[in-house]
Design goal:
The structure is a homodimer of 229-residue chains. Chain A is built from ten helices and three strands; from the N terminus they run αβααββααααααα. In chain A, strands 1-3-2 form a three-stranded antiparallel beta sheet. Chain A is mainly α and 229 residues long. Chain A has two domains: 65 residues, Arc Repressor Mutant, subunit A; 131 residues, Four Helix Bundle (Hemerythrin (Met), subunit A) (Up-down Bundle). The two termini of chain A are 19 Å apart. At the A-B interface, α3, α4 and α7 of A face α3, α4 and α7 of B. The first copy, chain A, binds a DNA duplex (30 and 30 nucleotides) through α2 and α3.
DNA sequence: GCTCAATAAATTGCATGCAATTGGCTATTG
DNA sequence: CAATAGCCAATTGCATGCAATTTATTGAGC
């Protein structure tokens, strides 16, 4: 059961990565034809992937008018971060109560990878910063919580792509380290305080004006066709 | 711009209602052909609707094996209710801080409708009980919160359909009334206590064993083809 | 009678073709 | 010159056909 990736799955994954790493900027049109052509499949598969991305909130589909990378408003941005605070607090509370055996190790090793990507100034660093929070959710073991956290984190990335500075690292890695410490000590108070501060820092970074949208997508997408990490 | 319902939208809505009102029980197979035939459309539209229902967690799609009404496990049930408590507390806190002008009226009138449906022992009562919580979320004004609450409420309905007593009303309407009172008084403590008790009552109702799954779906679906409420 | 292999039936995954809708462009009119 | 009607290009919505995968069935061998 290794590679059960149907074609639409592959397209979904590639598009998702491209959006989360800010290669596809908010507002970029995503016509089914272009996507199908660049991936060498039909519109059907492309459409399928777009539908899933839409339910993730990463693209917006207007009837008969096509899909585009979602352009969250400042209002929606506030909603996202408000709800994200709520959910991440829940994660912290649970992890302070019960942390899996090698959970701390996993977190530390993830932060190491973040640092590496940041030093290499790879676009992966943007995505990895978000995935730190997803990893936190995964340690709770709740599928649903993972799902919801993934959604708000994805949307946060989009918000930063829309309003934040270009290629901002989204998350201060220092704060990730501090958070791990607080979790290790099973100190929910401190952990929540760090998380709140962390999220506020991210939110505040979303205060610049927006930028124009990029041109043809096929060139960009070619870099995201591979399934590798 | 009144009826912009594409065909797949209509199918999505009908299937969703049928599932939430427990006409389609968990485990029921949902072949694209059958659905397309009963609704008089092609498999494409049916497939589309099923994909959306899958992302709502209402149906499970296994590759090359088709879709079926989701059968949540007891483990998943716990996850759902745990997260639901988290989210509904957030709703209550926000509503205690700021309740829209005629929000209380809207809640009261909704409960009235619940009572009417219950007296008429209409299957609508099951859905209305869930929609009370969605209405609460709507009063916060946060699109995202509405979305998340809708998801956990839908999944709760499914859990009750799987484990609860047949056609149980899911929610004690009394508790809805009490909750409205607490919200009116802007008393988050009491409101949260009622909500917790309420959700525990619902959760506890999910302790019977499960039942077998029903036969052909086309007959059932015919009752849900109309778009009316 | 039981197990296992080969085949047949059912169902999905995907590609393609056509009709329908939307947005923009042009030209006509006041 | 502004406004509006009508046409044109672009794109989606949907139906249908075919290949691939899975499951059920049948039959042979032990």
């Amino acid at each position: 059961m290794s590679t059960n990736l149907s074609r639409s799955d592959a397209i979904y994954a590639s598009l998702r990565r491209a959006i989360l790493e800010q290669a596809l900027k908010p507002g970029t049109k995503l016509p089914e034809d272009s996507i199908g052509d660049t991936f060498g499949v039909s519109r059907t598969s492309a459409r399928n992937a777009l539908l899933r991305l839409a339910s993730d909130g990463l693209v917006e589909i207007k009837p008969n008018r096509g899909a585009a990378v979602a352009m969250p408003t400042l209002e929606e941005a506030e909603e996202v971060f408000a709800l994200r605070r709520c959910l991440e607090r829940e994660v912290i509370e649970r992890l302070c109560k019960r942390m899996p055996r090698d959970g701390i190790d996993a977190l530390i090793s993830h932060v190491r990878e973040e640092e590496r990507a940041l030093q290499a100034s790879s676009p992966r660093s943007i995505r990895l910063a978000g995935e730190f929070h997803i990893l936190l959710a995964e340690l709770t073991g709740s599928k649903l919580l993972i799902d919801f956290i993934s959604q708000v984190v994805s949307r946060s990335s989009l918000i930063l792509a829309r309003f934040g500075r270009p290629h901002s690292a989204e998350c201060g890695i220092d704060e990730h380290v501090q958070l791990i410490e607080a979790l290790k000590e099973q100190d929910p108070q401190t952990a929540c305080r760090i998380m709140d501060h962390h999220l506020h820092a991210v939110e505040d970074r979303a205060k610049t004006d927006d930028k124009d949208d990029g041109p043809d997508i096929s060139e960009i997408l070619n870099r995201y066709m591979s399934v590798s990490d």
